[in-house]
Design goal:
Layout (H helix, E strand, L loop, with lengths): L6 H25 L12 H6 L1 H12 L6 E4 L3 E5 L10 E7 L8 E6 L4 E5 L7 E10 L2 E10 L1
Antiparallel strand pairs: 1-2, 2-5, 3-4, 3-6, 6-7
């Protein structure tokens, strides 16, 4: 027996197959945990309100003679602060945010005796990191941001 499909039946079958194809993607994106879609920040409205202060801190850091430098060394990641500051007066935090996995984000306090701060390889996983360094010296707050491929 030869199966003969007329063109109206073919159109209905093609549209049905397309709709099933699209619905399978909608199902995957909505219900499958592997396709997790989360916001970068849970408090993004609050973060947006503080953005002008962040811009002011970035501009203040841009006026420094020397910038913060991030260097990958054998032991880990070396962060070098500007030499114009007394290292013992620097206080603040270093935040590492992983865009692909917020479960491995971490934050470290800054306590220095020299201008160098070393983060060991044990804390960092290979990939892209958003590094945010906020420090205060003599009641002036500075901010440094960089995307880092570790």
């Amino acid at each position: 027996m030869k199966l003969k499909i007329s063109w109206p039946i073919g159109i209905v079958l093609a549209l049905s197959a397309f709709i099933i194809f699209i619905l399978s993607f909608v199902f995957k994106a909505t219900f499958v945990p592997g396709y997790d879609h989360h916001l970068v920040s849970d408090d993004y409205y609050k973060d947006e309100m503080n953005y002008q202060q962040e811009i002011d801190k970035l501009n203040k850091a841009a006026t420094l003679k020397e910038d913060v430098t991030l260097t990958k060394v054998a032991e880990g990641l070396l962060i070098k602060f500007p030499a114009e500051f007394d290292p013992e007066k620097i206080a603040g935090t270093i935040s590492f945010q992983r865009p692909s996995n917020d479960k491995i984000d971490f934050q470290l306090p800054i306590k220095l005796t020299t201008a160098d701060f070393l983060i060991l390889n044990d804390n960092l996983v290979q990939g892209i990191w958003n590094v945010k360094i906020e420090w205060t010296v003599n009641s002036n707050t500075y901010l440094f941001k960089e995307k880092l491929m570790y």
